[in-house]
Amino acid sequence: MRLTSRYRFSASHRLDTPALSPEENRRLYGKCNNPHGHGHDYVLDVSVTGPVDAASGQVVNIQTLDRLVAERILRDFDHKYLNADVREFEDFIPTSENIIRVMEDRLKSHWRESFAGDWPCLEKIRLRETRRNQFELASRK
Amino acid sequence: MFLTRKAEFSASHVCANPAWSADRNQAVYGNNANPNGHGHNYVLEVTLTGDPDPVTGMVFDLRQLKEILNREVVDPMDHRFLNKEVPPFDRVIPTTENLAVEIWKRIEPQIRRDGVRLQNVRLYETADLYVDYGGER
Fold first, then answer.
1. Which domains are seen in chain A, by residue range?
2. Which residues of chain B lie closer than 8 angstroms to A61, CB-CB?
3. How far is B137 from chain A, CA to nearest CA, in Å?
4. CA 20 to 30 Å from A114, out of A29, B5, B116, B122?
5. With an 8 Å Cβ cutoff, are A1 and B97 in contact?
6. Do A3 and B100 touch (CB under 8 A)?
7. What is B2-133's CATH topology?
């Protein structure tokens, strides 16, 4: 059984790599290179899998999952400027690809504190940056 | 080829294990354990897999599929209090997971035929929470 829970946060970012010149950054990232940043209403889907527990009838305690996502992701990301406010992005460009990798790292490194047993398992994370762009990462074992 | 049909029903439920204390039920189910129940607009997406029939060009007769979903799911569950009116939820806790399993059990035998099988049952409890069930034990 797979359960998917959706979360939302709003954040700003700027795409700019020190490896390239200002002109090259503008050409590569276009509007996303705007020096003062810009924001999105992100939509995050977290999918977990496992057997349905016979006593609770659930694959995951949703309140525990909500708390994990709130404490490890939303609290740090919502209404923030990712480049300045989230430590991982001090030297890591906050593209959606990189954001989703940071989120997976955060969830996996705190997973055991929330879910002590073999199940549920983090299966995948999907991040929607705009209605036209979304990114999905299958979680590593 | 995959074919997906959607159906909707609105129902109320309570999620609580009668063997547990009120505190434990609150810890596991939160608001969902409130004793008098509450409701959702459930959205069901049923996905079939198969090859289109060479004569009809269809994987499955959509009208038949709609009738199966209405008969097995929508008619018995829409505008009902699941725990009180829809067995087996008088003894099985009507979590989204258990509802998806029950829907699978009800419709799968009526869909299975040569070259066609039920692939997935997706049940949205709210727009922000859904489960996928593929028949695994």
1. 2-138 (3.30.479.10)
2. 28
3. 8
4. B122
5. yes
6. no
7. Tetrahydropterin Synthase; Chain A (3.30.479)
